[in-house]
Amino acid sequence: MPEITISASDGSGSFSAYVATPKGVPAGVVVMIQEIFGVNHAMRALSDWVADMGFIAISPDLFWRLEPGVQLTDGSKEEWDQAFALMNAFDQAKGIEDLKATVEVARTLPGSNGKVGTMGFCLGGRLAFMMATQSDADVNISYYGVGLDGLLDGAGAIKAPLLVHIAERDRFVPAEAREKIVAGLAGKPDVAVHVYPGVDHAFARMGGHSWDGRAATIANGRTAELLARVLG
Hints:
Elements: E1 3-7, E2 14-20, E3 27-33, H1 41-52, E4 56-60, H2 77-89, H3 92-107, E5 112-121, H4 123-134, E6 139-143, E7 162-167, H5 175-185, E8 191-196, H6 213-231
Helix pairs in contact: 3-4
């Protein structure tokens, strides 16, 4: 079951989602939220990693309304330009609707135990934070989300566990924004924020331009522990 099709909740069409299944079921499900490069090799590899941890992973194509099947890399200026153009044209509210539809489908996937979390990277890290404030997902994990400082007004709506991974030297998150995020989420029950010193945006994308093995291993360990606690 490498891909499934999910109907959009607004009736405007349907979108594909990559699915990776663990050896043992029933299992919790993790909705993997893409970077600005689409559901590319890196997102599929991350989904396979989540399946290796014993969870079902499902990664929906959120750019389908703009261009279905986008699979870019960070290896050329042309691909970066295309990725940023897609991000700027992307309707985040519609993206959240599509993620909610994915969560709903995930709860009843074959092999699902009914518990569903989200995990997002970059743009997906922002959307995972938005899912924490706007959805009924059982857990949400944000890796180097962009613009989180502008979403803090909704933090009071967070009811499920939230884990936020922040790169200290994130080129897209200034120090002032980072400090605002840390302060704005401090003391909130079941919300954990970790800043990883000396690393840049996308430090957990294996093979990417900013990959950092130490920070990624520590962050991924925290992620695995939280998923195991909440999703079983």
